[in-house]
Every structure is written in C-alpha cells, then in structure tokens.
Amino acid sequence: MSSSTVVTNIATLVTNDPSLGDGSPLGLIQDAAVVVDGDRVVWTGEAGRAPAADHRVDAAGRAVLPGFVDSHSHLVFAGDRTQEFNARMSGRSYSAGGIRTTVAATRAATDAELEANLTRYLAEALRQGTTTFETKSGYGLTVEDESRALRIAARHTDEVTYLGAHIVSPDHADDPAAYVALVTGEMLDACAPHARWIDVFCEKGAFDGDQARAILTAGKAKGLHPRIHANQLSYGPGVQLAVELDAASADHCTHLTDADVDALAQGDTVATLLPGAEFSTRAEWPDARRLLDAGVTVALSTDCNPGSSFTSSVPFCVALAVRDMGMTPDEAVWSATAGGAAALRRTDVGRLTPGARADLTLLDAPSHVHLAYRPGVPLVAGVWRGGERVV
Ligand SMILES: [Zn+2]
C-alpha cells in the first residue's frame, strides 16, 4: 500500500502547468504544497488548501521545481581527456577526432568498469537535481562494443540512444561507406533491442546529410525514433533533416540559417541547446533568444561527455543559458525541465501536476531564479524520484 506525503511551506513552486498559479509557462504558485502518493503527484496548489496526507515535509520557505530532465548525455565511456582539454584551453581548436581517444579507452574497459563509471556520473547528476536522463552509445563503434554500451545504459534508464554513427570508426577510416553499411545493418540489428532512439553526428568530419538520412531512416525502420547532433560546429543539413524525419530533437543548433529556424518553428522537433559544449570548447554560443522568438521549443541539457562538455550539472547550464544565450531565468528553468521532457517526447516528467511522476527538486533558495542568480553554488537541498527521497 502506498502512503501519501505533503511537501508544504514551499515559497515558490514551479509546476510547468500554465493553467496553475500565475498563468506563466512555469505555472508558478507562491506559498504552495505538493501531495505525493506512491510514485505520483496527486495534488498541487496553495499550501492552505492542501488535503491531508500521511506524512509532512516542511520546505521551510524554499523553492521546489520538477526534477531536471537531461535529454542529452554520453555517459558510457572510459578514460579521460584532461590533456586534450588542457591543450584546447592553451590555444588549439576542437575537432571531432578527439572522440577516438575515448573509443580506444572504452573498448579496453570491462563491463564492470563502464557500469561503475556510468553509475558514478549518474549519482553526481542526481545530487544536482537530475531525475531523468538520456544517454548514448558511441564510444564502441563495433557491433559488440556498441551493443554492450546500450545494454549497460538500459539497466539505468529507459532513454537509451544508439549512436554507432558518432564518428566513422577508426577501423573503417578508408571506407566510410562500409562503416555506414555496418551501422545500418549488423550493428543496428544488434543494438535496436536495447535502445529507444537512434542518433547521428551530422557534421563535417563525421557524417554528411545523405549518410545521416540513411542511418536515421534505417533506425526508424527498426522501430527506433530519431534524434540528431546537428549544426554544432558549422552550418549544415542536420536541422532540416531532423524536422523532415520528425526527429524528437535536433541537438546543439549553434549555426542556424533563417531556413533552419523556420523549419524548427514549423515542425515538432525540439531544439536542444548544450551550453556546456560551447563553454568547454570556447565556441560561439547558440542563440536561444532567436529560437524562442521564432516560437521554437527549446530544451537545455548537459551533453555530459569526457571530450567537449564534462559537466553533469544542469544548474550550471541554466546559468550559462541566462548569462550568454539570451534566455530569461524562467525560460531556462522551463527548458531544463519541461523542455527536456519534450525532447524525449515524455509528458510524465518535467512538470508537477496530478498524474506526473513525483520527481521533485528542493532548492536551498526561495526561488528557481537563484539557479542563474547564484551560479556554481550547490543549491540542490533535496531530490525525490518517483516519490522516494534520494538526496
Ligand atoms: Zn552529444
């Protein structure tokens, strides 16, 4: 039998339901309460009207928001790229080839080593308020190594993405077409049972538009849904391909033409921005303001990976998005919760309304604005996932 808990005395509650509270997209309620029963939210509203519950948690005048939904990470890997980062920060530019370093280390690791590494970064993310995360393969690039990465990831999340097309495998450097055939053939057959999504790094030095189309189309035929690394380092066909194929998300979106922005505004593809990557590579910021003003749905995620964005902190990405990408604090918090859920085509997370999964993040601050106002400060004071307190 489940028991109910009321979390009350919440100074600011982010519900992400515009029909509640102040009527903004965040659906902010002041002096609020949330009632949780089992793993679900059953009631949200003003504290004075909360129904009775078996247990009571006093938020003591602090803010509560939905657990962050980190819809883009690469956490099945081994090794470290400290030297590459250090070199880059000393003046060399980033190229996609650095991934090969992690591929070699990942292939050499045991299953137990990969899982221990994954578990460590998941715990780190959870302490920072992330209750739902997506993660990808992409550091194996063989049938065996890609499928084992997905098997390991699937033990920890439902949001598993097959990214055999991260770069052309070093084993096929002289014959990219043969590698695309492998990714869309034997490797796809081995990986599809363990994944929900298929992804491709559509970029100069990785896969071009025709290759990306072939890879995503093959994945769709096997029941995987597309998402895509698009327009990160340069202009290219990725974003419009994403919309054409009804990808759930086009990720990065740093170099966009007006036609790219129009396509996103008219389609159902979320633009997922990953400011940790621009921060860690000293690259040009994506223009979130331009996307939002065009009516595009924007998500914010970490892109946590050992090469180009080694942060698991959604609050850090919120602060960057506000400081450098033209987002308001409200928009950034929405994008890191409801936006991430949209990028995973989920409606059960990223909001705190009846029926939603009871994923709550309690801040040691009176409002969600403090996530941007107090950058770098560990403000997460409590986390519930599926109704269970985990931090
Ligand atoms: Zn990525």
TrEMBL record:
Fe(3+) binds at H72, H74, H229, D303. Gene3D superfamilies: Metal-dependent hydrolases, Urease, subunit C, domain 1. It catalyses: 4-imidazolone-5-propanoate + H2O = N-formimidoyl-L-glutamate. Binds 1 zinc or iron ion per subunit. 4-imidazolone-5-propanoate binds at R81, Y139, H166, Q232, S308. Pathway: Amino-acid degradation; L-histidine degradation into L-glutamate; N-formimidoyl-L-glutamate from L-histidine: step 3/3. One of its GO terms (molecular function) is zinc ion binding. It is found in: Cytoplasm. One of its GO terms (cellular component) is cytoplasm. Residues 64-385 form the Amidohydrolase-related domain. Its EC number is 3.5.2.7. Zn(2+) binds at H72, H74, H229, D303. N-formimidoyl-L-glutamate binds at Y139, N305, G307. One of its GO terms (biological process) is L-histidine catabolic process to glutamate and formamide. Its cofactor is Zn(2+); Fe(3+). It is an enzyme of class 3 (hydrolase). Belongs to the metallo-dependent hydrolases superfamily. HutI family. Catalyzes the hydrolytic cleavage of the carbon-nitrogen bond in imidazolone-5-propanoate to yield N-formimidoyl-L-glutamate. It is the third step in the universal histidine degradation pathway. This is Imidazolonepropionase. It comes from Streptomyces collinus (strain DSM 40733 / Tue 365).
